[in-house]
C-alpha cells in the first residue's frame, strides 16, 4: 500500500487517557479509533492485524476438528431464561427491547444459543462428538472500560462448544482445545501458559486460563521455567490420538495465578527455575458437564437406545484482546514490534528521495515484489518522519533506500526486532525477507 | 469434510413458514437456523458460502482502491444527532441504553461514524481521495421480517464511503464503485443490472441500484437485452483511468424498476430486445455531496489554503442477502445449484458401499485430492439419501463411486447444473473438476 494514498494515519501526541503501552501505541499508530467508551473502530492497520490473528485462531480450531458456524449478536432473552442465567447475569449484559417490546440482549457468550441449535439437529449418538465454534463480536457492558482493546465493551471473541456422549469424550475434547490453544498462541509468537482457574459464571468444575507474561499484566503469576522453554510448535499433534502426554507436561509443572497460588508447591521448585511475573489472560477453557444440556433439555439417543444428556465444554479466545496482548509482549520505546505471523505488512519501503529516478525505480521494484504485503512510504516527508513512523507501526522489516544506495544497487534492510542492519542487493534483500 | 463427523444437518420436511425458494432451501439444506424472528445463525454449510461471497466482495473493493476498516456495531446516538438522523430514522433503528443510561443504537448504516473517523485524521487535500469500507453486521428492526436472509433484521452488509475534494472526484469514485459492483456480482455468476434509483433516507441526488433477475423478485423491472449479453469480466478495468465508457454503456441502455419506468423510452426498444422480468436488489450506490460532511463539520485544507468540505458517496452490498439471491437465481426442484465461485465445497464424494475395500480406497483418494474443498458422504445411509442430499446442498460436482466402478477404476461424475454424467478415471475426474 502506498502511504500517499493510504488511510494509515498516525498521531504525534501520546493520548492522555491511555494508561498502558498497547493502548497508547494502538492509538498513536492509527490502529483503532474509540467511537464510544470502550468501543473501537479498527482502522486499516489494526484491521489487518486483527484479521491475521483471527485467521490463525480459525486455522488451529479447524485443525483440531472444530467446525465453524456464525451465531448472531442479538439473542432472545427466552434462551437465557431456559438456562436460568437471564436474571443471574449482572449489568454487564446489554439488555434491550425490539420494536415489538420483546426482551433481547447483545450476546456476551453463546452457551444457550449453541445448545439450542445443537438440540434442534442432534438425534443420536452418531451425531456426537461435535465441536462448534464461531468468531463473533460480543458485548459486555463493563462499568469502567479501559486499556483500549484489552478491556473493551464490544470485542471479538472465538468461542467453541463441545458436545460429547460421556466424561471420557468430554475430556478428549477438552484436551484437543488445550493443545489447539498452545499452538494458536505459539504461532503468534506468544508464550502462553495454561493455569488452573476458577470456573466463574460459566460454571463447571475444570478450567484453565492461558496467560502470557507481560509487565503490564493484570495478574501476578508463578510458574516453573520448564514451561517457558518448551517448544510448542516442535511437533504437530495427532488430535485423534492420545493428547494426554502433552497436557500432562503442562499440568504437572507448577503454574498458577495469585488466586490459586500454593506456596508449598512453589517452594518445592528449585529457585533458579522459579518465574514470578505479571500475566495477561488471553484464553479460557471450561468443562462444565451437563449444566446447559440438562437445563435446556438436550438429549440424544445412545447406542443402547436410552437417552443421553451430552457433556459440554466451552473454549474462549479474546481475539481483539490478543492484538493488545501481543503489543504488550512485544514493543519498545519507539513503538510496536510485530511478530512476523501477525504483522500488518511484512515490509516498509522507505524512499528517502522521491523524484530521484534510481531511488524511485529501486523502491518500485522492491515494493512490487511483495504484492500487497508491503507498505511504500512515498509521502513527501522527511526521512526522520518515515523512520519514526515505520518504527512506531512495527513492520518486521524496513528497507531504507536513498540515492547513494540506489546508485550502487543496494538496499539497506533493518530488522525491527533487533535493530540489525544489512546492506544487500535487491535480489538478496527480497530473499532475506521472504525467507525470514 | 467427512459427513459422518460433520455438522451438516438437513431437514426432510419443507418448513411451513418459508414462502420463497431460497428460504426453504437454506433451511432444508441446514445452511441457517432462525434464532429469533429475522435473526439467523449460520451453520457450517451456509457459513462457508457467506465467507466466499464476502471474500469476493472484499477482493473487488480492494481492487478498486477502497481500503478496509471495521466499525463497531454499537454506536452512540450523539453521532446521529449531529447529522439530524437520530430523530428522523424510524422504528427500524434498534435503540438501546447502556448501563450508564446513555443513548446508543445498533448501527443500521455508518455514514455518521465514518465521517467522524475521517474528520479526526484528514487535514489537507493530500489526504483525499479516500474510500473506506467495512463488512459488518447491521440491524434494521423490520416490522415483519421474512424471506429468510433476504429480509432479515441482523444482516451482513458491505458499506463503502468515499471522500473527494470536488464533484469530478466524487464522480470518479462513484464510477469506480459502479464498475466494482458489476465485477463483484459477475464473479458470483450473477447478471446484475444497474438501474437508476431514488435516494431515499440516505439523501443525495444520484443513485443506482443493482438488481438480478429472478422469478421471486420483489420488483418489476424493464431492460434492454444488450445488458444481459454484456461480458462484464471480459476485460480488467483500469480503475485509475477513465471508466466513463463502461458506465456509459450501462446507463445509455434502458433499465428501470417499476417506480422509474418510462413507457416512451421502453417502447423505443425493438420488441425482441425488450426484457420484462422480476428483480431482486443486491446493491445500491449513492452520491450525496456534502450532506454529511457539511452537517458534521468535516473540512480539510485545499491546495490553495482555503477550507474544502469533501463530497461523499456511499456504496452498499447486502452480503448475507446475496446468499439468498444467488439461490433464487440458481436452483431447481431438487435443490440449490451453486455457481462454482461461491460453492461451499466444489465436490461431494458419494460412497455407495462403505466397507467395500476398492470403493473406500477410491473414495479416499479422490477426497484427499481436494484438500478441504470436498465433502465425503461416508454416512451409513442408502444411496438415495446421499443423492438427494447432494442435490439439495447443490455442490457443483458429485462423484458417485460404487463397487462396479471401483473395480474398473472408474468414477462417475455428475455436474449438478446440467445433470451431465461422465465416467472417468480418477486422474481424469480430478483434472475435469479442477479445470472447471
From TrEMBL, chains A, B:
Its EC number is 6.1.1.15. One of its GO terms (biological process) is prolyl-tRNA aminoacylation. CDD domains: ProRS_anticodon_short, ProRS_core_prok. Gene3D superfamilies: Anticodon-binding domain, Bira Bifunctional Protein, Domain 2. Residues 38-339 form the Aminoacyl-transfer RNA synthetases class-II family profile domain. It is found in: Cytoplasm. It comes from the Bacteria. InterPro entries: aa-tRNA-synt_IIb (IPR002314), aa-tRNA-synth_II (IPR006195), aa-tRNA-synth_II/BPL/LPL (IPR045864), Anticodon-bd (IPR004154), Anticodon-bd_dom_sf (IPR036621), Pro-tRNA-ligase_IIa (IPR002316), Pro-tRNA-synth_IIa_bac-type (IPR004500), Pro-tRNA_synthetase (IPR050062). Coiled coil: none annotated. Its main location: cytoplasm. Keywords: Aminoacyl-tRNA synthetase, ATP-binding, Cytoplasm, Ligase, Nucleotide-binding, Protein biosynthesis. GO terms for molecular function: ATP binding; proline-tRNA ligase activity. It catalyses: tRNA(Pro) + L-proline + ATP = L-prolyl-tRNA(Pro) + AMP + diphosphate. It is an enzyme of class 6 (ligase). GO terms for cellular component: cytosol. PANTHER family: MITOCHONDRIAL RIBOSOME PROTEIN L39/PROLYL-TRNA LIGASE FAMILY MEMBER, PROLINE--TRNA LIGASE. Belongs to the class-II aminoacyl-tRNA synthetase family. ProS type 2 subfamily. Catalyzes the attachment of proline to tRNA(Pro) in a two-step reaction: proline is first activated by ATP to form Pro-AMP and then transferred to the acceptor end of tRNA(Pro). Homodimer. This is Proline--tRNA ligase. It comes from Belnapia rosea.
Amino acid at each position: 500500500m502506498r502511504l500517499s494514498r493510504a488511510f494509515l494515519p498516525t498521531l504525534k501526541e501520546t493520548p492522555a487517557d491511555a494508561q498502558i503501552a498497547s493502548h497508547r501505541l494502538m492509538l498513536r499508530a492509527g490502529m483503532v479509533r474509540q467511537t464510544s467508551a470502550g468501543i473501537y473502530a479498527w482502522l486499516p492497520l489494526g484491521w489487518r492485524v486483527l484479521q491475521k490473528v483471527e485467521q490463525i485462531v480459525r486455522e488451529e480450531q479447524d485443525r483440531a476438528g472444530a467446525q465453524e458456524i456464525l451465531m448472531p449478536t442479538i439473542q432472545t432473552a427466552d434462551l437465557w431464561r431456559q438456562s436460568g442465567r437471564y436474571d443471574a447475569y449482572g449489568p454487564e449484559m446489554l439488555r434491550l427491547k425490539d420494536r415489538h417490546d420483546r426482551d433481547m440482549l447483545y450476546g456476551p457468550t453463546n452457551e444457550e444459543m449453541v445448545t439450542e441449535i445443537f438440540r434442534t439437529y442432534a438425534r443420536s449418538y452418531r451425531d456426537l462428538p461435535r465441536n462448534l465454534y464461531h468468531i463473533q463480536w460480543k458485548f459486555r457492558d463493563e462499568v469502567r472500560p479501559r486499556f483500549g482493546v484489552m478491556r473493551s465493551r464490544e470485542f471479538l471473541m472465538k468461542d467453541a462448544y463441545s458436545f460429547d456422549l460421556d466424561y471420557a469424550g468430554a475430556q478428549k475434547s477438552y484436551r484437543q482445545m488445550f493443545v489447539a490453544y498452545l499452538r494458536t498462541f505459539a504461532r503468534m509468537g506468544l508464550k502462553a501458559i495454561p493455569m488452573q482457574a476458577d470456573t466463574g459464571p460459566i460454571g463447571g468444575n475444570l478450567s484453565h486460563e492461558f496467560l502470557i507474561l507481560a509487565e503490564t499484566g493484570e495478574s501476578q503469576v508463578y510458574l516453573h521455567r520448564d514451561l517457558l522453554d518448551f517448544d510448542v510448535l516442535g511437533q504437530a499433534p495427532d488430535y485423534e490420538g492420545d493428547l494426554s502426554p502433552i497436557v500432562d507436561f503442562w499440568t504437572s509443572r507448577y503454574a498458577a495465578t495469585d488466586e490459586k497460588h500454593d506456596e508449598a508447591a512453589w517452594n518445592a521448585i528449585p529457585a533458579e527455575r522459579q518465574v514470578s511475573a505479571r500475566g495477561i489472560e488471553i484464553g479460557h477453557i471450561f468443562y462444565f458437564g451437563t449444566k446447559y444440556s440438562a437445563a435446556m433439555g438436550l438429549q440424544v439417543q445412545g447406542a443402547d437406545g436410552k437417552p443421553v444428556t451430552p457433556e459440554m465444554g466451552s473454549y474462549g479466545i479474546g481475539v481483539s484482546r490478543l492484538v493488545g496482548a501481543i503489543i504488550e509482549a512485544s514493543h519498545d520505546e519507539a513503538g510496536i514490534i510485530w511478530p512476523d505471523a501477525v504483522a500488518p505488512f511484512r515490509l516498509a519501503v522507505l524512499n528517502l528521495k522521491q523524484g530521484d529516478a534510481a531511488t524511485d525505480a529501486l523502491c518500485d521494484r522492491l515494493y512490487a515484489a511483495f504484492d500487497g504485503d508491503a507498505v511504500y512510504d512515498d509521502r513527501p516527508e522527511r526521512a526522520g518522519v518515515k523512520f519514526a513512523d515505520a518504527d512506531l507501526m512495527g513492520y518486521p522489516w524496513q528497507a531504507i533506500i536513498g540515492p547513494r544506495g540506489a546508485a550502487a544497487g543496494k538496499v539497506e534492510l533493518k530488522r525491527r526486532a533487533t535493530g540489525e542492519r544489512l546492506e544487500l542487493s535487491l535480489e538478496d534483500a527480497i530473499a532475506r525477507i521472504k525467507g525470514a
